[in-house]
Write a sequence for this structure.
């Protein structure tokens, strides 16, 4: 849906809401998506889907009383029913002292190239071709190939009764493949995420996964312990998410976060990571353009969260900002971890006397929010590094480690970053004393 | 099944095939008045006819309406009042031996016919590269209505009543000194669906689930310490009566006090210890270590790229000593209350109860109509499920439960019998590897057991084990009277990920000499 069509539909919805719920403040968000995918496993196509849907989220407030409704039925009778229902709910809701007035018109940074027409136009045959290329890449090594190709196209538009209108259209494509050896002793994975499907080379991804599967077969047994590890971007992105989701001002002020200081206050201004490490966000980042506004319509601009190891910003809701006389700062949709100067992943191996190269993590979960301790497992390609070279495949491990240790003890990062799942632009990195806590027998 | 299927068929009998080409479809009704809208018959017919005409050898149409209503409170005020609806029609077909699926939020005969044609096109595109054509295990043709047995529809409970309960819980918890924050909430959900297949199945079901909960957080700012304690109430397939009859409100002071106690609790000394795990905790260990590895698609590699595979491979069926010989685990989609309980799955197969582990041995998988033949079984176990109208249905976990022990033991008997152990209640951190060997679990509360008595609260506890080793280390089970449901509203599987609600009934159980960790990394070098 383009901006003009979205605006027209939202204007109609706001007008209807004003007539059916007199005196209400209205916040309306339209999300329009086409989500298509093809799955493959055991070296053949399995299931697929292609669904277009528009969803409306409508929030109504009478003073401090508010309620919201979300529906995918947008014909007029359904809209009327939804508005009447949410108005009833809002009138009955107890007052919420934290409710903020809806935002008026805002200025947003221009975001280019978020929407790629060829990606939006992809169909099942293109997906089947890509999946077949991946399956073919596994054939030569008699590998079982599984994977997933997904592409989405759509837009998000926000409008309020106070005159706000925001619109962002985007596309996304992702392709991932897992290859497993026929004797089930080796497994390899590779994946890519992009706003443009044309930048994803399915066969190349499958070749990396196939190569890892072959090389990881018949792994050598390695004891658990603290190791120097080289983490590929997928592993870095997965662990980084636990840090970014914790960067919240209110919980820090309330004393229930790693970012709280003993005795009161926060860790803002404190150096928590090694020197080169910088964590930023920018909706206009050409490598990963995202919406320049939050769900509420609050503008998002470039922000430095951790600058050369020092905490510079924590996300702050509009309520908390008003309460504490701060500036609101929205959680971005994409993050960039930078500061590295290594030329390649291979360069990170140089100088490692004995360490472990890790492809990706699996089933990561919080253990202790006080230290940002996370548990999880390695999978699909774990290798021993000896004297700067990968020498053998080793068993998988469970780890218990914090992203603060991953980044606090990192001594080398690649200059290049890769887009990974969940809006992460991350490098590969090398860090030490990484706690590989126990052996996993999984392959 | 007789207990839950309150169906009343008008003009037909269960098992009789419907002729879907007929313009007049059999009307369905039930005790609660569930009744297919007449216009939907036309949507179903249009979808099935279009699929057949386009060349499908099999088709099913699912019209699904999902509804959620949520209310949440923090400290002294309501923080969220929201509703969410999703409605649409999905058509799944087999053409040329391959699956095709398409869906739309527009529930009209023309749109159903359109997506049916798209589904057949997709199937034909995939058929060119399919090596193993899809075949479906036979199933009697069912025509029926099924619905959650409940006495108080949670969607009809006044908002004020829900708000009053949450605010009362929060107020009671906030009275406890040291408690700084409380969050509470209740989510109600309804899943109504009409399933019709080209074979003549015609099934209308409504599943209502309720998910209440709250957590208190204690903070000691001077030391930079904080701890949370969540109530152990479980989500259930039930109405508001489940919440009204619960002890949530009465428990609030204790839950709050335990949050404060956690701040001062003794750090656990790591090492091998006996664990006494109560149902509010053990259900999750069962889910991860028994529920997931016995999914047949996973065992065969269909989930290799995401959820993973399984150590419980097909060659081990009937042979693998999965657990100690006194352990019995069964799947059951028929018992009232279980989150995954229903009358029929999304293949139109009548739900069942069957053994997964019998006398310690691995004896059963979870299957769908497509999968039954893969292991030479004649009939599906009835575990096919799609999250909503837009989701391709595939194999999802039924309620997988641990049977009680033969002796009538209570939790107290297990504690009395334990010399050096840890009692764990509630769900905390959880993680398991992609073949379901190595797992690590935390919990809500941990208590030291010394010489048969609970002595004090512990903190920073997690245990790590290997599935087969762990279930062989189980030496004591509670009796039938100690059996309780636990469950999860949002179990993820598949790409794109779909959510499935599932319960696991179990008894308190003891596990010998399991590795216990101290998770506070600040206390170590």
């Amino acid at each position: 849906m383009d901006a003009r069509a979205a605006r027209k539909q939202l204007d109609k919805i706001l007008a209807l809401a004003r007539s059916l719920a007199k005196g209400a403040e209205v916040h309306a968000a339209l999300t329009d998506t086409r989500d298509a995918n093809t799955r493959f496993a055991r070296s053949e196509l399995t299931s697929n889907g292609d669904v277009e849907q528009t969803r409306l989220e409508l929030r109504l407030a009478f003073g401090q009383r508010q309620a919201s409704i979300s529906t995918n039925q947008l014909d007029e009778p359904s809209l009327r029913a939804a508005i009447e229902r949410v108005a009833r709910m809002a009138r009955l809701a107890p007052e919420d002292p934290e409710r903020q007035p809806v935002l008026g018109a805002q200025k947003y940074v221009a975001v280019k190239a978020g929407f790629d027409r060829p990606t939006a136009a992809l169909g099942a045959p293109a997906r089947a071709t890509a999946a077949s290329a991946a399956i073919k890449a596994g054939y030569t090594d008699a590998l079982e190939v599984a994977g997933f190709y997904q592409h989405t196209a759509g837009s998000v538009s926000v409008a309020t009764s106070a005159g706000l209108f925001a619109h962002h259209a985007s596309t996304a494509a992702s392709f991932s493949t897992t290859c497993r050896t026929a004797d089930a002793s080796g497994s390899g994975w590779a994946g890519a995420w992009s706003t443009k499907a044309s930048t994803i080379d399915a066969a190349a991804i499958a070749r990396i996964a196939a190569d890892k599967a072959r090389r990881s077969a018949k792994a050598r047994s390695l004891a658990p312990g603290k190791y120097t590890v080289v983490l590929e971007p997928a592993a870095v992105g997965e662990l980084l998410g636990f840090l970014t989701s914790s960067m919240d001002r209110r919980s820090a002020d309330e004393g229930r976060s790693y970012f709280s200081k003993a005795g009161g206050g926060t860790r803002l201004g404190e150096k928590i990571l090694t020197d080169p490490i910088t964590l930023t966000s920018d909706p206009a980042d050409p490598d990963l353009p995202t919406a320049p506004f939050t769900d509420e319509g609050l503008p998002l601009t470039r922000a430095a969260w951790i600058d050369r190891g020092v905490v510079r910003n924590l996300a702050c809701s509009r309520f908390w900002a008003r309460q504490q006389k701060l500036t609101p700062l929205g959680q971005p949709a994409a993050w960039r971890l930078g500061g590295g100067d290594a030329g390649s992943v291979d360069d990170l191996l140089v100088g490692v006397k004995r360490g472990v190269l890790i492809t990706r993590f699996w089933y990561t979960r919080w253990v202790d929010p006080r230290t940002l301790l996370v548990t999880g497992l390695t999978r699909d390609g774990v290798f021993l590094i000896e004297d700067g070279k990968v020498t053998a495949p080793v068993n998988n491990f469970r780890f218990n480690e914090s992203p603060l240790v991953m980044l606090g003890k990192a001594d080398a990062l690649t200059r290049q970053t890769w887009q990974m799942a969940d809006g992460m632009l991350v490098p590969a990195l090398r860090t030490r004393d990484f706690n590989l806590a126990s052996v996993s027998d999984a392959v | 099944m007789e207990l839950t299927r309150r169906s009343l068929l008008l003009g037909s009998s269960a098992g009789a095939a419907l002729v879907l080409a007929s313009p007049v479809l059999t009307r369905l009704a039930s005790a609660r008045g569930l009744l297919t809208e007449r216009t939907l018959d036309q949507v179903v017919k249009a979808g099935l006819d279009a699929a057949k005409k386009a060349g499908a050898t099999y088709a099913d149409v699912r019209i699904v309406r999902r509804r959620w209503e949520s209310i949440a409170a923090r400290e002294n005020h309501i923080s969220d009042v929201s509703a969410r609806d999703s409605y649409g029609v999905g058509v799944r077909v087999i053409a040329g031996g391959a699956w095709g699926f398409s869906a739309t939020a527009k529930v009209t005969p023309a749109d159903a016919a359109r997506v049916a044609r798209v589904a057949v096109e997709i199937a034909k595109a995939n058929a060119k590269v399919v090596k193993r054509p899809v075949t479906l295990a036979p199933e009697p043709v069912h025509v029926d209505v099924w619905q959650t047995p409940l006495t108080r529809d949670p969607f009809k409970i006044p908002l004020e009543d829900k708000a009053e309960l949450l605010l009362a819980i929060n107020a009671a918890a906030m009275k406890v000194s040291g408690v700084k924050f409380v969050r509470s909430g209740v989510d109600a959900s309804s899943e109504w669906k009409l399933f019709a297949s080209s074979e003549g199945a015609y099934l209308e079901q409504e599943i209502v689930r309720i998910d209440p909960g709250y957590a208190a957080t204690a903070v000691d700012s001077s030391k930079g310490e904080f701890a949370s304690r969540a109530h152990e109430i479980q989500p259930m397939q039930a109405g508001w009566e489940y919440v009204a009859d619960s002890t949530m409100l009465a428990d609030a002071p204790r839950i709050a006090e335990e949050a404060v106690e956690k701040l001062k609790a003794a750090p656990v000394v790591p090492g091998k210890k006996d664990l006494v795990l109560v149902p509010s905790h053990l259900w999750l260990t069962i889910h991860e270590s028994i529920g997931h590895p016995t999914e047949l698609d996973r065992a065969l590699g269909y989930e290799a790229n995401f959820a993973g595979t399984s150590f419980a491979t097909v060659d081990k069926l009937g042979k693998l000593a999965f657990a100690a010989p006194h352990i019995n685990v069964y799947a059951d989609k028929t018992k009232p209350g279980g989150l995954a309980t229903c009358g029929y799955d999304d293949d139109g197969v009548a739900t069942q109860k069957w053994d997964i582990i019998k006398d310690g041995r691995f004896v059963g998988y979870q299957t769908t109509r497509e999968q039954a033949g893969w292991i030479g079984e004649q009939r599906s176990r009835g575990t096919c499920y799609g999250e909503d109208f837009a989701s391709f249905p595939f194999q999802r976990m039924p309620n997988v439960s641990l049977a009680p022990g033969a002796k009538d033991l209570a939790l107290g008997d297990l504690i009395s019998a334990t010399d050096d152990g840890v009692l764990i209640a509630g769900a905390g951190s959880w993680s398991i590897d992609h073949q379901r060997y190595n797992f690590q679990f935390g919990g809500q509360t941990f208590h030291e057991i010394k010489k048969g008595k609970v002595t004090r609260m512990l903190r920073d506890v997690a245990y790590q084990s290997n599935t087969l080793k762990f279930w062989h280390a189980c030496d004591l089970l509670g009796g039938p009277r100690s059996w309780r449901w636990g469950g999860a509203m949002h179990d993820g599987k598949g790409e794109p990920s779909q959510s499935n609600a599932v319960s696991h009934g179990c008894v308190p159980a003891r596990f010998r000499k399991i590795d216990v960790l101290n998770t506070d990394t600040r206390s170590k070098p």
